[in-house]
Amino acid sequence: MMALESGLQQSSAFHCQQFLRVPRTSWTQNCSFPGLSKGFLRKSSILSISMSPSFQFGIIRERKGILHVMSPDVASPGLAVELLDAWDDEYNGVIIDTQCLPSSPNAFASALGASLSNWKLKGKRGIWLKILSEQADFVPIAIQEGFEYHHAEPGYVMLTYWIPNEPCLLPSGPSHQIGIAGFVINDKKEVLVVKEKCPCSCSGVWKLPTGYINKYEDIFSGAVREVKEETGVDTVFLEMVAFRHAHRVAFEKSDLLFVCMLKPLSSEIVIDEQEIQDAKWMPIGELIGQPFYQDDHMSRKMIEICTSAYENCYHGFTAQQLISKLDGRLTQLYYKDNKPKI
Q1: 127-166: per-residue pLDDT in tens?
Q2: Is 169 domain-assigned?
Q3: Helix ranges, the chain (H)
């Protein structure tokens, strides 16, 4: 290697850079990283590269945590560019630390390009980059480098980069929305139903209270909450009787609707006037006798299954909290309990 470097120094086509060291900027200091998985190693170093627009990697040497790059096409002195702070994940990929990104787009562009080259040399695979709303100027820079959108939430967008020249093995972004329907029936065999304020196909139809569950909310808790919000009726979860799986619904996402049987703890109705036009207790026969349910076989079947469950002719899924060894957390397991109902 020494002989090769000596030869390159004497060649007219190559020359070693006299690198100008740039002081480490504040975005690599005083960063804390709570809640990281064990085994992740913090990685911070300086990559010295040529800033030529037509920069191509020649020979790369690593010495004392600094990567020195000699380029065959150099028109200006090289600059020392810091690598992005990141961790190795357990799949030989990289997770970039959002909190320690450079403060300016130019610094980010330089560090990102240098980091990608470094990760490629090290044989890394998937790269994860979370960009916060206040860092939005970095998004087009990352896209230009080859990153792709993965998913977005209020406050950030997640981008990914797949290095190997093979099909991407990174998991895709969220593909499903989860909704619930609450079947609440009293001792008079009356079902709690609502009319929604919406221009959809079920406008003007008496139907079960429905809605989407919130982030980090259990399915049965979402059912109890939605019924309370729309009708004011307090309930307790009994069982999950059925679920419907549909595709290409809102925003081209798939949709899971879980039908939950709930026991009423109160009867007085107080509607949410922003979403609900009206609500009442309705006999089952009158509910499924509406023209909508005569034409919609799936909705009719849901009501029939719920009725069978109420009459103890059908058993759905109950929920039980169990600890999972995967993450050590309490998790709801839904399963069919064949014990007789009380």
Answers
A1: 999 999 999 999 999 999 999 999 999 999 999 999 999 9
A2: no
A3: 2-10, 105-121, 139-145, 219-231, 284-288, 291-295, 297-310
Boundary residue ending a domain (105, 130, 162): 162
In this structure, the answer to whether residues 124 and 90 fall within a common structural domain is yes
Which CATH number is 95's domain given? 3.40.630.30
Tokens 């993965």: give the residue.
Answer: 150
State the DSSP string of 121-153. HTT--EEEEEEEGGGGGGHHHHHHHT-EEEEEE
Do 252 and 297 have their domain in common? yes
Task: Centre a 10 Å sphere on the Cβ of residue 100 and count the other Cβ atoms it contains.
Answer: 19
- Could you tell me if 233 and 97 lie in one domain? no
Q: Which of residues 116, 134, 162 is at a domain's end?
A: 162
How many other CB atoms sit within 10 Å of the CB of residue 167?
Answer: 6
Instruction: Determine the 3-state secondary structure of 212 from DSSP.
Output: strand
- In angstroms, the CA 342 to CA 266 distance is 20
Q: What is the pLDDT of residues 190-232, one digit of tens each?
A: 999 999 987 776 778 999 999 999 999 999 999 999 999 999 9
